[in-house]
User: Fold these one by one.
Assistant:
Number 1:
Amino acid sequence: RDKNQVKLANWLLTSKSTIVLTGAGMSTESNLPDFRSKEGWWRSIDPITVAAPEALDNNYELFTDFYTARLEALEGTAPHEGHQVIADWEERGFVDAVATQNVDGLHTAAGSKNVYELHGSLKNIYCHNCGAKAAPSDFKAKRKCGVCGGKLRPGVILFGEMLPQEAWNTALSRIKSASLIIVIGTSLEVYPANQLPLLASGRTVYLNAEVSSSGQDFDLVLEGKAKTIITEVQRIMHEA
Ligand code: NAD
Ligand code: APR
């Protein structure tokens, strides 16, 4: 048995409050690319051209193509066993909530109830001008807002935009008071989500395919694939 996995299993079983913080690495095993790995989105696209508000004014065509591609990628995917185990841990009282930087909705699809979407949600389409809601099919068909004729966009937080206050404040206060924080599948490169582990008062765990560049110290580090490690830890918990 991997001693770090045994340790995480014991911490999960004994912790009185546990929050999971996830990033794009949690969804690569559901065939959704992350951003900064070698097959990540930002290896082929400059984020400033599609993930900043200016993109809506400067190159709306590229912007709509990029998010349409991501919406279409989403249609063919499902949560993997790792998402399902995290939902099971919440069900059994070992995890209280998931704060995620992901916009793919896979934690909720897997059955997690308390999910804080710090960077919004891809499927939540609305008008950039008047805020009127629209359907993903309207956005994919490159239609304009039915109310004001403005530009439609996904409810994904772009670089520089404010994070949804409610999700951010709840995640922040729960992470500050939790006795265990498990950070999974994120490079921790993007502010302000990357500050959350630093604000934790409890034990901190980093589970990532690449663990050397986070620049942050953790009480426990598990290097490897999220799905593999999470399901291994689940097996150890069942044997305990
Ligand atoms: P940033 O633009 O990533 O973050 C600063 C602003 O972005 C904040 O106001 C934050 O609220 C907002 N933001 C909200 N949601 C966001 C989201 N989904 N993605 C990104 N930002 C969001 O500024 P930065 O940290 O300088 O990052 C700019 C680029 O530089 C990013 O690609 C980042 O990965 C890269 N980078 C950042 C750091 C770092 O320590 N911040 C280090 C190396 C590389
Ligand atoms: N298992 C574990 N870790 C993985 C896996 C996996 N199967 N696949 C990838 N990873 C790791 C990568 O090694 C990388 O360190 O997950 C991390 C993903 O980091 P990023 O690609 O930077 O994604 P993320 O941290 O979520 O980016 C934060 O940046 O572009 C913005 O708004 C966007 O929410 C995103 C934010």
Number 2:
Amino acid sequence: MASALTEKLSRLVKELRGQARITESNVQDMLREVRMALLEADVALPVVRDFIARVKDKALGQEVVGSLTPGQALVGIIHRELAATMGAGVADLNLAVQPPAVILMAGLQGAGKTTTTAKLAKWLIERRKKKVLTVSTDVYRPAAIEQLKTVTRQAGAEWFASTPQQSPLDIARAALDHARRHYFDVLLVDTAGRLAIDEAMMREIQALHAELKPAETLFVVDAMQGQDAVNTARAFKEALPLTGIVLTKLDGDSRGGAALSVRAITGAPIKFAGVSEKIDGLELFDAERHAGRVLG
Ligand code: GDP
């Protein structure tokens, strides 16, 4: 991941590893630099504060000062705390419900919702051997409905037709009914997005949530968005009980901060990472591995 955060932290990590002696005062200096790097990478301030406090707490304990390789020990702590901030282990999807399990996709326009819906369909078919149906409730953009049709076909899943003349709720009901009658395991519901948060959009997706009672409500967010990603995440978290986050465009030249912030701000686990524009460019998010990448 070619991010500013990675470059800064790799440089710091290199410096740290070479430190023969770590004292309380140079731990403070180093943490000041880590703090700067995180802020410059658009990690939200409360998240940075909390992170630094946790690292400092551990670093000033026996673990670092007094260890044979104090630089290494401090890097180890930073790595562990980065991973802990982004999640613990790999958070899988919850599909243990009476089928069809509904997955509601939420997020702003351009975040990668439609692409991710198709990627997830393919992932569910190939990795979980599921029978998958997709549907779009984006009645405002006929092109979005067509786009879902195209990418669903690429994914090898089935697509449920909808038209701009229907209401989103009617589409949702019809798709769920179809999924039940034809024994689909999973129904993926791609919803309308806007360029910015608006109340009508939030009310609409809340109504869809109430109707569909999804097993998963995934918030799709563009990792390149930095601080904006945090604000959007907060707004969606307030409107919907999010069960997971999909961080898209992690392959891009993002500043790397979004991954750290969105989890801490929403409390929802990052479940998937979008790593390319292609239909197979979706991975289960691995916080441990991502922390390693961020540290370079
Ligand atoms: P939506 O408006 O939220 O449905 O967004 P789209 O699914 O139409 O995606 C917007 C753009 O982002 C498209 O050009 C996608 O190809 C691109 N995109 C989505 N996910 C990824 C990703 O993980 N990596 C990259 N590089 N591009 C992505």
